[in-house]
Amino acid sequence: MDFLTSLYLNDVFLHILIHKSCRKFLRFVWNGRYYQFRVLLFGLSLSRQTFAKVLRLVLSWAPEHGIRLVEYFDDLLILGEFKKKFGIHTTVFQNKLTDLGLLIYTEKPVIILRQLIVA
């Protein structure tokens, strides 16, 4: 029997800062005022790919600490066999993401007990 925590990262693109020299390419004018994005924006063709690369780096430490997880873009699943160890892994993982400045959507985390059958 495995335990499973589902976490959803909030506003994922807004966590990636754009280098100052590149911000000029993300400018627009509205009501006669100039604006430019300082963070990765929604709708940019490379946004999803860029975030996936950054997240892969962030999550690379998890297996080294015995944390089993599955990642699909901004949804993360933490898996564990033993309730006590699983609870510790979930807390450590959430703290690590928070320490790195990633926001976890707190309305959505779900911890469930399921028997997973892997074929």
Automatic annotation (TrEMBL):
- InterPro entries in the record: DNA/RNA_pol_sf, Hepadnavirus_pol/RT, Rev_trsase/Diguanyl_cyclase, RT_dom
Domain of life, source organism? Eukaryota
**SUPFAM superfamilies per the UniProt record, alphabetical:** DNA/RNA polymerases
Domain Reverse transcriptase: from-to ranges: 1-119
Instruction: Give the protein's recorded name.
Output: Reverse transcriptase domain-containing protein
Q: Which species is the source of this protein?
A: Smittium culicis
